[in-house]
Write the structure tokens for this entry.
Amino acid sequence: MPKRLRLTRRTNIAMTEDGYRKLRGLSKEAGLDEGEFLSFVFENWGSVLNDEKFIARIRIFNSELEDRKR
């Protein structure tokens, strides 16, 4: 019997418009709501993301962060 999905934690998050549009699009494509989709991504982090590419992208994001805040 599959484990029942219980969303027990609620977190307020701040996102860019581009990030939120991407989240909505991906969750809709997967047939999930945004919370379910985020739970899936974090529960399956190791098999969903390429660690090397993620580290490179987060470094670029961090280097551009101050300019994006202006």
Observations:
- The two ends are 50 Å apart (CA to CA).
- The mean pLDDT is 88.
- DSSP finds four helices and no strands in the chain.
